[in-house]
Amino acid sequence: MSEFGQFKNIYFEECGDLIALAEETLLLMQAGDSSLENINALFRAIHSIKGGAGSFSFNNIVTFAHEFETLLDHLRNESIEFNSDICQLLIKSHDVLHDLINLAKRNSDEKPLQFFTVHSQLLEVLEHHTGSAYLSKDEVNEEIAETVFQINFKPHPNMMKFGNDPLFLIRELSSLKLDQKSENFSVIIHEDQVPYLSEIDWSLCYFWWQFQIKTMHTLSRIKEVFEFVEDDCELEITILNKIVIESKSRTDLSILKEQKSQEINSLKISDSGSSKSQKEEMSHSIRVELDRIDRLVNTVGEMVIKQAMLIDQAQLIQGDGIHDFIKGLQDLNHHMRDLQDYVMAIRAQPVKTVFSRIPRLVREVASELGKEVNLVMSGETTEIDKTVIERLGEPLMHMIRNAVDHGIESPNDREKNKKNRIGSIHLHAEHKSGRILIEITDDGKGINRNGVLKKALEKDLISPDHNLTGDEIDNLIFLPGFSTATEITNISGRGVGMDVVKKSIQSLGGRVSISSIEGKGCKFTLTLPLTLAVLDGMIASVGNQQYIIPIINIIETLRPSKAQVSSLIGCHDIMLLRKNTISLVYLHEIFNIPNAIHDPWNAIVVVVESEGGELIGLVVDELHKQQQVVIKGLEDNYDPIPGISAATILGNGNVSMILDVAVLKKLGQQQYKKRLETDKKTITNLR
Amino acid sequence: MNEVIQETEHKAKIHQFITFSVNKQEYGIEITSIREIKGWINTTSLPNTPQYMRGVINLRGSVVPVLDLRCRFGLGLTEATKAHVIMILNIQGRIMGMLVDAVSDIIYVKVEDIKSVPSMDVTEGQDTVLQGIADIDGRMVALLSLEKIFDHSKCLHFEGEMHQEIMQGHNKNSE
Q1: pLDDT (tens digit, 9 = 90+) per residue, B23-66?
Q2: In this structure, are residues A479 and A494 in contact, taking their beta carbons and an 8 Å threshold?
Q3: A552 C-beta neighbours (distance < 10 Å), count
Q4: What is the rounded CA–CA span in Å between residue B172 and residue A664?
Q5: Low-confidence residues of chain A, pLDDT below 70?
Q6: B92 at A interface, C-beta within 8 A
Q7: Please, are residues A533 and A631 in contact by the beta-carbon 8 Å criterion?
Q8: Complex ipTM, two decimals?
């Protein structure tokens, strides 16, 4: 990637943060907190986006952000009053800006659909409130702005040799000050470079100056003063405070005072103070490539395993002092665990990053459908692994879309049913026993069980003589090919159904469940692992090989009696378990492992949940122990292998494969077909 | 100064190969693709892969697949002992191991001394994996093309249909 591209990426990353920050601030403002602090925060965010966009010449962003910023500027000067209409406009503008950034990211120069309406609305408001034709030019803003500059001017000693006299420069600079009042221009002379009298060379300049000037002029005009001496001095210009002049007449007195005092403060504070506060802000976070963190996570995971192995080994050794040695190792083990937690915490991020996209989504979908929805979010600070967060976004947005589209009724329907016109959706996250719980609750119409049943019958997903419980009916919506909306709506009918949601959550090692009361609403619960780097697994052996079965997939384990198992002709073997039939999949068969136990009643059957929630029985020789394992992708060095999701390294240093339970049944069926074919061939050969 | 330039020019035309033996025949691979050489350790088998994929080993925390070169040539599985050697290779960014009988030497071969493989009269199975043949003081060293040995499609040809079908299903699922 070119260096420029790299900068661009950093810019977009920062934009993402800023947009999220702006969104957060807007939500506070929407809730009624229109304090100056919030407006300023929003202004800063938009301003930074504009600044960066300028250097990459994303002109659409610059133009739009500029108007946005101007509106905010008026708001903080109170020349435009903050009200709910303005707030809506701000929110819309924010959405458009977000779209613009996304388009720019894809190198597209297009403008989003809403751009023109929102942009013209912005201009209209600005024009209306400022009372004069509004000029959308940068100079307007900059010319009328009253700025305090601090200029550190350090001439090189031999500057005067080239015919430049600092005095002229200082005179010219002082002529730029706001008015004739002396307080608008201050000079500090630094004479620390002046040598002893005997050593003074009259042709050299030993002084350096620090000016503070309050002016109506722009930074470029100030720079112009020093244009000719640029190469012969060190010049440092900082902006201390910036206010817009026309605000003063209308500004609330207390704020004015505050600004004044700030101004005075900033005039008094030496430059070291201001740069220090900047530095402090910088040190809150650093950007690190994810790759580096992953390497760290891996290495630490490795060390934890090795550590456990060392303790096991040490306990076998006899002799003096071994006790202390083991104790030391165990202490070290604690530190290792801590280290692992800390390293994992680096990857963890608050779910806020996903949640912050939801309000906008709800807004858009609700307004498109003419529904009124109030979104409540809680537990946004709950932290999960970054990868989980990234992959959580899509399914979560889909479920929220569903909740607004299918769950919440139209305001009139709600009134008829004696509900509040405004529907409510609650999005909640929390830690629960080592996993993350995310709940999406709506107070809509709930799941229409009759409708679901009818649909499922139509689509041949269930047999007519079913006897399903209410919960089981609700769970039908997770079946592939199921969609309750009779017409495909623009909102939720994007070709993905709840089955896709379920699959993507499962691929993260999570589960989805649903509980619904018809007419009252419905609740989706997601449980997710805290991290994708480790997994709880059961070690099972088949022949001389050991495999890991993810605990999350295991329903139960048992050794069936001979009577429970029957091999049906033309079908795979079946086990009867509490009146349910479970098809058996022989691991040794699908993986071609010699010397394994063939009869299920001598082996162990692990009942696991396969694709689509179907239960299958995995036949393995023996189960060993439950253990946390570090997941190692096989794909780095080899092509994906069906039935294997990843590998791991066990305490003894051996590699072991982690089973991909979802596809094992399909593998089993194929093996079975093949076995039948070979059987047929042997029979024909015999004849 | 001139000497240095000459030397570098000289070097540019010379390739270094590591030679090793499989079934008493000498082979060479370019030294730049070799990361390390280690003694044989037991592998964990990879299910449903060609027989010549011996499985994976733990190389200081990374999972590295190992290929049995003798078996790849169709000469049967190597009965690996501690004397056998796994060469750890870097092939287009992937780390792979290759099981051979023994590593013997480092040779310097001028580009012009590498002869193309005669199109006839080659043992079956080897025709596709040779890069050329070098004549070193009367010894014939077969130079191998690693890319061809570890070729994707070749690795998958075993039960290819089933593999493909599953993988397609898999991809659909993950989409």
Answers
A1: 888 888 989 889 999 999 888 888 888 888 888 998 877 889 99
A2: no
A3: 18
A4: 16
A5: 1-4, 130-145, 180-182, 241-284, 433-434, 481, 483-496, 568-571, 611-613, 675, 679, 682-683, 685-687
A6: no
A7: yes
A8: 0.74
Q: Which of A616, A299, A662, A305 is nearest to A509 (CA)?
A: A662
User: Cβ contact (<8 Å) for A644 and B46?
Assistant: yes
Output the pTM of the full model. Answer: 0.54
- List CB contacts (< 8 A) between A591 and chain B: 47-48
What are the φ and ψ backbone dihedral angles of B114, each rounded to 5 degrees?
-85, 120
Q: Where are the alpha helices (DSSP H) in A108-244?
A: 115-130, 138-144, 166-174, 219-225
Q: Closest Cα to residue A473, out of A518, A527, A408, A441?
A: A518
Query: Are B94 and A636 a contacting pair at CB < 8 A?
Result: yes
Q: Do A640 and B162 touch (CB under 8 A)?
A: no
Q: Of A349 and B161, which is predicted with more confidence? A: A349
As a whole number of angstroms, the distance between CA B103 and CA B19 comes to 6
Is A525 in contact with A380 (CB distance < 8 Å)? Answer: no
Q: In angstroms, what separates the C-alpha of A591 from chain B's closest C-alpha? A: 5
Alpha-carbon distance of A633 to B65, in angstroms, equals: 12
Asked if residues B116 and B122 have their Cβ atoms less than 8 Å apart, the reply is no
Between the alpha carbon of residue A10 and those of residues A27, A282, A350, A584, the distances in Å are 26, 15, 21, 52
Report the alpha-carbon distance of residue A550 to residue A41 in Å, rounded.
46
**Which has more pLDDT, B175 or B111?**
B111
Nearest CA in chain A to B64: A637
Q: Which of B41, B53, B56 to mutate to test the interface with A (most CBs of A within 10 A)?
A: B56
Order of all β-strands in the sheet with A622-630: A622-630, A534-542, A545-550, A655-659, A644-649
**Cβ-based contacts of A545 with chain B (< 8 Å):** 44-45
Query: What is the number of H-type helices and E-type strands within chain A?
Result: 21, 22
Partner residue facing B169 (CB), from A507, A591, A663:
A663
Q: What is the pLDDT of residue A254?
A: 43
| pLDDT tens-digit series, residues A532-541 | 777 788 999 8
Q: Is the dihedral of CA A33, A36, A40, A43 positive or negative?
A: positive
> Can you state the angle between helices A115-130 and A84-105, rounded to 10 degrees?
140
Interchain proximity A590–B47, CB inside 8 Å: yes
Distance CA A125, CA A81 (A): 11
pLDDT of residue A136: 41
Q: How far is CA A20 from the centre of its chain?
A: 10
Instruction: For residue A571, count CB atoms less than 10 angstroms from its CB and return exposed for 0-12, middle for 13-18, buried for 19 or more.
Output: exposed
Q: How confident is the model at residue B85 (pLDDT cuts 50, 70, 90)?
A: very high
pLDDT at A474: 79
**Which residue among B43, B48, B167 places its CB closest to the CB of A591?**
B48
Residue B66: its pLDDT value, please?
92
